[in-house]
Amino acid sequence: MITCSLRYTIDPYKLADFEAYAKLWIPLVNRLGGTHHGYFLPHEGANNIALALFSFPSLAAYEHYRLRMAEDAECKAAFALAEETRCILSYERSFMRPVFE
Question: How far is CA 47 from CA 11, 35, 56, 73, in A?
């Protein structure tokens, strides 16, 4: 299993736009074969950092997801929302291997 960790730098004045974007992606990742663990929005501390975590059985499964995502109309609409609102200033993507025991 791999877990994709996304660290976003967001515009804190567009938090509602980012939350709308996040709510679009959770069911999309799940529908396309992943397990979304949620988005984590600012509450205390830095007001411009958000996180997302989602897992796939393997890196190959994640790569298949990326191919399907690029062609999916709902995914394209989610990307368009972020572009239109400019709520995301930048992001970093890392892959982790979870340890449960």
Answer: 9, 26, 29, 31
Residue 100, domain member (yes or no) = no
Sign, CA torsion 56/57/61/62: positive
Output the six-digit token pair for 50: 């958000």
pTM, rounded to two decimals = 0.91
DSSP-H helix ranges across the chain:
15-31, 59-71, 73-85
- pLDDT per residue as tens digits for the range 30-47: 999 999 999 999 999 999
User: How many independent structural domains does the chain possess?
Assistant: 1
Residue 21 maps to which CATH number?
Answer: 3.30.70.100
d(CA 62, CA 57): 8
Range of the domain at 15: 2-94
Q: Name beta bridge partners: 36.
A: 54
